[in-house]
Amino acid sequence: MAKKDILRGIEYKDIDFNGLPEYVIKKKTPKHKQYLSGERILPKNITGKESLEDLIGNSFMAYNSARLKEGCRLFSEKMLGKNVTVGMTLAGALTPAGLGASSVVPLINAGFVDWIIATGANMYHDLHFAFNAPLHAGSHLADDAELQENQVVRIYDIYLGYLDCLISTDEIFKQVLWKPEFQKEMGTAEFYHKMGKYADAIEKANGLKNVSVMAAAYRAGVPIYTSSPGDSTLGMDIAGMELQGIKLRINPSIDVNETASIVLAAKRSGGKSAVLLIGGGSPKNFMLQTEPQIQEVLRLKDFGHDYFFQVTDARPDTGGLSGATPSEAVSWGKVDPKQLPDAVVCYMDSTIALPIITHYALSKHKKRALKKLFYKREEFLHRLTEEYFRHNKRLNPKS
């Protein structure tokens, strides 16, 4: 065989399939081509000069790298549409790891997140940054007994001083809570907004900028909710102060109705609802339960969230909610079944995924106008209440 024939390359049409069993040789079906219509896996060599977006587009071809690419594209191309309301959840110790400052604050400032559900622990640790109480990189291999002797608290490989971080944060927080505006019943969105005003002022007084999620949310009018307000140092401090006579009361029912009204308002205005779930746990359930609240409890017609993007390291087969898939959520009415192609789950450490998602979105999409949903809560709740009684006239106390 001539050298040029050897080097020309062998293609499918050149292969001799004679001798293969007849049952192997089947006529190509229309679906054969359909199944093989995806992007060809033939990435360019990495040179070290690529931008992050190019690296994702060229090299994230399979497994969870491909899911992350799909999620980044879903977020930047569809979820950030003008008529889409984006709700974000934060579970796991993300703010002490710096994810609040590095990723969540830029998303808020860009108008990419319209409302948030976070664990109380995330919001408590967020205050360290506003109050200039330092956290430090450490080792997960430390002797914890020795750390305790030296008044150092560990979150895996993050070190916090017991007195100069935790206790100092508690003392500033408790001083703020005695202010007159806190002496009443409220939901967590109002609570965090009032607290965010002080976080913003203290952040600025410390010569810091854009380090606190709570402060950034206050400035942007982004409401923050916590599904289990007693399950953190914030809740513990409030409970302790209740013994001293503080009048502050957190009412979780306010949050249930307000969050449902945000989703309903997005839908009734002709828009869509998107959820960006960083981790799982209670915030994930609280975000997704807005649809069963609308459909099952309030008996209002709706079909579930339109876009779903979750980053989690939890498995679905153990029955834990953190690993529950969007297809499972369809059975509860939480996700619109027609929108399942626009649902992505990436099984990955959030501390890796969230900075990548943030960078990709900021590089691909221009800033959106701030929706400032915090200031529309009363209007949304009024609309939800009116529709509720319109469809449930027998329950209307005025009828």
Describe this structure in words.
This protein is an alpha/beta fold. 46% of the residues lie in helices and 12% in strands. It is built from 17 helices and 11 strands. The chain has a 6-stranded parallel sheet, with helices on both faces. Strands 3-5-4 form a 3-stranded antiparallel sheet. A hairpin with a 2-residue loop joins strand 4 (152-155) and strand 5.
How many separate helices? 17
What integer is the average pLDDT?
92
Structural class, from helix and strand content?
A: alpha/beta
CATH architecture: 3-Layer(aba) Sandwich
Query: In the CATH scheme, what's the topology name?
Result: Deoxyhypusine Synthase
CATH class: Alpha Beta
Gross geometry: globular
Proportion of residues in extended strands: 5-15%
Number of domains: 1
Low-confidence stretches: none
Radius of gyration: 25 Å
From the structure above, extract its key features.
3-stranded antiparallel β-sheet, alpha/beta, 6-stranded parallel β-sheet, Deoxyhypusine Synthase, 399 residues, 17 helices
Summarize the structure in short.
The protein has 17 helices and 11 strands.
How are the elements arranged and paired?
Layout: H1 3-7, H2 30-35, H3 52-59, H4 63-79, E1 84-90, H5 99-109, E2 115-118, H6 120-130, E3 135-137, H7 144-149, E4 152-155, E5 158-161, H8 162-177, E6 185-186, H9 188-205, H10 213-220, E7 224-225, H11 233-242, E8 249-250, H12 252-268, E9 272-278, H13 281-288, H14 290-297, E10 307-312, H15 326-330, E11 343-347, H16 350-364, H17 377-391
Parallel strand pairs: 1-2, 1-9, 2-7, 6-8, 9-10, 10-11
Antiparallel strand pairs: 3-5, 4-5
Helix pairs in contact: 4-16, 5-10, 5-16, 8-11, 9-10, 12-14, 12-17
